[in-house]
Recover the amino acids of this structure.
């Protein structure tokens, strides 16, 4: 069974998660405790977390600590090589954990997933599998500087760089920008490209770009793919 701790208040999320571990071990002294860092997540370690037990060890308590890489973890975002290696590393970790979610959710073991600053798309998947979720967010706008116009985002679209656009979308989402706001900026830039022209985008391509963004938003509102995830897929498709 999965117990999910997440939210924007990183310190509180971590403190509450480890406090929960302490209380669980007091309540059930025979629990065998193990902590798995992101780098330790493999098919083998996750299978052990879900299935291990036996005659003398009835249950495990496994804490999976911050399993998802964040944008700040990219080695060198300005380098194509650095981006590719980091992107692949993140995708591998994400896929490994998500492939084992069903087994972890139905396990008799207590699986505590500690994931501060979890993106909305991933939070939705994990919440659906969790027995209990504990979310701790910072007060709205607490200690958060106002964010102005995101020129890096629109410039990445104008340059038709799917790698840079994907990265800027994830940076903005991690910083707390609403996906609807990002969509609005991208659609504004698509219309701007239609009006002014571009060496990278033809007028016909810019019009198709604008229409695809409209369709993407409508599909999300009708209950399709989560908008933040749809924007990531859009970025990789340009």
């Amino acid at each position: 069974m999965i117990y999910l701790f997440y939210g924007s208040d990183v310190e509180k999320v971590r403190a509450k998660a480890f406090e929960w571990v302490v209380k669980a071990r007091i309540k059930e002294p025979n629990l065998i405790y193990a902590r798995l860092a992101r780098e330790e997540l493999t098919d083998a370690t996750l299978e052990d977390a879900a299935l291990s037990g036996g005659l003398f060890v009835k249950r495990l308590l496994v804490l999976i600590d911050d399993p998802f890489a964040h944008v700040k973890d990219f080695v060198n975002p300005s380098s194509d090589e650095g981006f590719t290696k980091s992107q692949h590393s993140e995708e591998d970790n994400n896929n490994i954990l998500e492939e084992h979610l069903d087994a972890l959710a139905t396990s008799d073991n207590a699986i505590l997933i500690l994931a501060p600053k979890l993106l909305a798309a991933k939070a939705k998947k994990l919440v659906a599998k969790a027995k209990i979720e504990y979310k701790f967010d910072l007060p709205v706008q607490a200690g958060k500087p106002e964010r102005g116009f995101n020129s890096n985002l629109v410039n990445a679209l104008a340059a038709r760089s799917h790698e840079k656009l994907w990265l800027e979308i994830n940076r903005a989402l991690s910083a707390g920008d609403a996906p609807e706001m990002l969509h609005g900026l991208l659609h504004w830039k698509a219309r701007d490209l239609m009006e002014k022209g571009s060496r990278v985008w033809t007028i016909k391509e810019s019009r198709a770009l604008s229409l695809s963004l409209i369709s993407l938003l409508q599909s999300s509102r009708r209950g399709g793919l989560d908008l933040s995830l749809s924007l990531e897929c859009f970025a990789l498709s340009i």
Summary: The chain has two domains: 2-135, 151-237. The first helix runs from residue 10 to 27.
